[in-house]
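call fold(seq) -> tokens
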Amino acid sequence: MNSAALRALARAATATTVLLTVAACTDTSPASPRATSSASSARQQAPTAEAHTTPSDRNTAMDIRVTLDGRPVDATLNDSPAARDFAGLLPLTLDLEDFHQTERVADLPRRLTTSGAPEPAAPKAGDLAYYAPWGNLALFYRDGPSASADLLILGHIDADTDRLAGADRITIEAAH
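ret:
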């Protein structure tokens, strides 16, 4: 093969790799407006920036089942890397202790990833968070004082502050 033919073959291989990557990252379910009827129509679509992960993707909520002292409450995890890592630990049952009359805390069985952490945000009552330096879970029953890069918000529990403040045991399971 001459060098021009090899360059053409290399460009075709690169284009095929890009097309397969975009196709693998694109929703092709029947309900999707992007669904294609054949492989040939997929080849005609140009790659778009929509195939890449954006910061707003981290805000997609994941439902979880939470019980506080044996009573269920509604809860969600965000889609941050730390929250996905936390979901990999489920199911968990943890004993909670009060910390600074603001949050209930418990030790996790292992540390969570902190890579790709979103911008720090001040915790609000009901937030479920991970405090990286200590490797523990925090359930806030009062708003936290300020944002900290060491505190990663994992999700939120919808319960009144009295119930959060008095919780001694939390069970967290993946929703099915």
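Residues 35 and 41 are 10 Å apart (CA to CA).
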